[in-house]
Structures are given as structure tokens and as C-alpha cells.
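CORE FACILITY INTAKE
Project code: CF-77B
Contact: R.S. (postdoc)
Sample description: multi-component assembly, two entities in total
Requested service: structural model of the whole complex
Turnaround: standard
Below are the sequence entries exactly as provided by the requester. Do not edit them.
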Amino acid sequence: VRKKAIDRMAAMRHGDNLRGEEWVITRADGEERTLLISTSVLYDPDEGVHVLAMMQDITDRKRAEEQSHRHLAELAHVGRLATMGEMATGLAHEVNQPLAAIATYADACCQLIQDANRPDGKRLRVLLDKIHKQSLRAGEIVRRLRGYVRRAAPSRVATDLNKLIRESVEVVFAESRLHNITVEFDLGNSVPDVLVDPIQLQQVVLNLVKNAMEAVAEVETERRCITLATTVRQNALEVSIRDNGPGIPEATKDQVFDAFFTTKPDGMGMGLAISRSIVEAHGGRLSVADLPTRGSVFRFTVPISSGTEPLS
Amino acid sequence: VNSTPIVYIVDDDPAVADALAEMVRGMQLTPAGYENAQQFLADYDPDQHSCLILDLRLPGMSGIELQQELDSRGHSLPIIMITGHGDVPSCVRAVKLGALEFLEKPYSPEQLRGCIVRALELDAQRRQRLARQAEIEERLSRLTAEEMSVAKLVATGYTNKEIAAKLDISLRTVQFRRASSMNKLNVESRAELVQSVLLGQASASRTDIGVRGGQFHREK
């Protein structure tokens, strides 16, 4: 630190000021503290050169921030597990499909080998190829789910939100098809990458899509529709999820983001609360509005430039 | 009427439908796959010797709804219902509606093949019965009203003498009408005559039930 300070002084001589640099120092009692240091050189024609140095001990503030990020990550993880639990039936169905196909193709192969005097190698090859494809399909479903429930340290990486949105919807694809829900995409063309935690953002999208699916389940079968859109708005990327469900009653509109508020018989009431926390931790906002026609729209933003703030 | 049996497959998962089709082909049978109930209904030929492998969970019209639709149209082809999850109430409903078998995914292909063979056998028997019935009905329709009334009374168990008294005609006329009825019905004994008349009556009353919407009428 001493060496760093001397270097700093030298640099200041050349008018090189420091604005809010974090230094980690070790106190006499061995404890590490983080200091926020700003320096500036003031030149006064009468009194000569003044050096102004400001040091702020931000250790406690940083610890609190890290802890709240950790808590959010924990909570988000629990939320993802709960979501998986709610979707278990649909997911089991989704994994069962390729497995059933594999077992059936394999049976066809066995028949081919047993029955034919001279097994048709070409047809056998075609069938084995189909088995291979279906096993990859099953593996892909498992990979996607494992990625989703993974308890990973929050990390922010440059992410293509359009791609993330499409992948999130794939998780509930079987479910949506079964309930005759049309999922439409209106994704912006030149959407820049944003610095986000992909697992957490996927969780937000999935939560909102699941809510939308439950909302449209209340309308007639032919016209259940969910639209996911992305738009660039000044310094933020806006993601909107709209549904043509019955909308949210005025009386409960203020409560939907509250923890433990739920309208579902087996809901925990954490989905939207966690989603809002995640969005806000990313420096964005999550809000809900009625649509002029019918249904509601949930919108959230993610800053485009200021997502650079490091997270723990 | 095509005598080569067709195994209809309705499953919204293209891979599952394709795999089932391959398995059916392996059984030296002809598969016909459909993504949804509407497509199947548009293509289904009731005169075709066939059975149906049906996914319970389908977008649009569900497996049970299709089963009901077929029933209301009077098509009673044997159905093997397949479901992704053990949905007990649906299972009970499907079986009540006459589903031949209810298999849970992941099913054993061997078991499924057994079901297909059984379903096609049942369908063949049903078709034979229907054909026989149609033949009898056609023959019965050739009877004159006078011949019919005599035949019916024979079937009820009256003697020629009693019939003559009942219808106020001569014994000779009864004998004559009875002989011509047997000739037209292509039967040689009294027992056969009775059987034909009863079968004709049974199929007539069955049609009545069908019109009145008897849903549970399905052969098993």
C-alpha cells in the first residue's frame, strides 16, 4: 500500500487525479478494510499547491451489499426450485416423450432383426439414427433444467436477451401447446447484449410467462395468446410480456409484487416478489399495466450501459 | 372395403407418432399417423378394418373428446389410449367409454403390440358380426309384410295352427308364407328362422338406442 501511495503521489504531480478508487488495506490488527479514495490537486496562485485527499471506509457498506446479493441469490434459487416443483408434471411429460419414442424405435429395431431372414441394414440404420436424435432431445431437456436449477454464484455476463427469452419459453413449450396457448415473439432486431445474470433473468422471464399462461387459461380456447417483446428505450432494454387474460383486478394491483401475495391455491406468492428484486438488483424496474383491449402487460427494463457495476 | 388392417395413430408429438408408425410397420401392418383429432376425423374411414392408438392429452380436441365424437357418430373402432401421466379420472372415463386398453407412458412396446393384435382381432370379429347382421337385415327387407308377420309369430313360438287363427288366414297360407320367408332368408330350420328374425329386431332396437344417444353402447 505504501508503494501504491507513493506512486499515486507521483502521478498527482502530473495532474493525474483519482476519482473513487477502491483500495484494500490491512489494518494493524490484521483486518482487511476497503477504502474509497479520491484525490485532487488544487493550485492556488497565492498559496501554491494543495493536495486534497478523501478516504472513506466503505467496508461495511460493501459487506452489506454483498450479503443482500447473496440473500437474493439464495431466494432466487429457492424460487427456481419451487417453480420446477410446480411444473413437475409438465416436465415429466416432456422428458417422457423422447423416452417413449426411443423405446418404440428400439422395439421396431428388434422386430427387424428377428423377423427378417436378412435384416435390412439400411432401415436399421435409419431407426438407430432416430433413436440417437431422440436421446439427444432428452439430454437437451435435462441440460436445460439442470442449468435452470443450478445454485451458481451470481455472475454477470454479456447476454443476448432475445435468445434468453426464446430458451426460457422452451421450458414451458409442452405446457403451452397442451393448453392451446399461442406464444408470439416480437423481438427487436438490433438489441444490444446486456450485462446480466442469465439464470436469474431467465427466472424472471419464466415467472412472467407462467403467470401469463395461468391468466390466459381463463379465456376461451381459440384465442389464448402471449406475446413477448423486446424494445430498446434510451439507455435501457425493455422486455414486455403481454397476455389476453382477464387482467388484474384493481383491488389487488398494488399487492401483486408483495411477498407471499398469491391468488393461486397452491402458490407461494414469491414469483413476482423475487422477480422484482432480481430486476432491481440489475438496476432496472418491473411494472404491470392493463392493456386497452384486454389482459395485462408486465414490463421490465435492464440498463444497457450501466450494467457494468460488478456484483460481489 | 380394404381388408388390410390399418393402425391409426393420433399423437401430437411427431417423434412419438413416427416411432409408433415404425413399430406398426415392423408388425407388417399399415400405420396412419395424425397430429390431432380433427385431422384424424377428416381422414378416418369407418369401413376400414382398423384400430386406433390415441394420446389422451392432445391440443384442441382431447383423446376423450375424440372417443365421444366417434361414439356419437356410431363408429366403434377399438381404441388403445395412451397417457403421459397416470390421470386416474380420465382413465376411468376412457375405459367406461369403451377404451380397450389404457397404457401409461413410458409404455412397454411389447405390451402395446399385444394390444394392437387384440384390438385388430376384436375389430375383425365386430366387422364379421356387422356384415352378418347387414346380410340378415337385407334378407329380412325382402320379406313382404304378410311374410314378416308370419315369421315374427313363428319366432315368438306360435304353431302354424295358432298363427292361422291369430291372423285369420288358412293354414295353407301360413305354411306357404313360412316357406317363402325361409327361402328368402336362406335358412333351413325353424331355429335359424327365429335367429334371423331376432337378430334383425336386435339391430333395429340398437339403432334406436343409438339415436337416443346411448353413449355407453360399445362392443368390448
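Facility notes:
- Helices of chain A lie at 2-13, 59-86, 88-115, 121-149, 161-171, 173-178, 198-216, 271-281.
- Chain A touches chain B through 28 residues (CB under 8 Å).
Invoice: internal transfer
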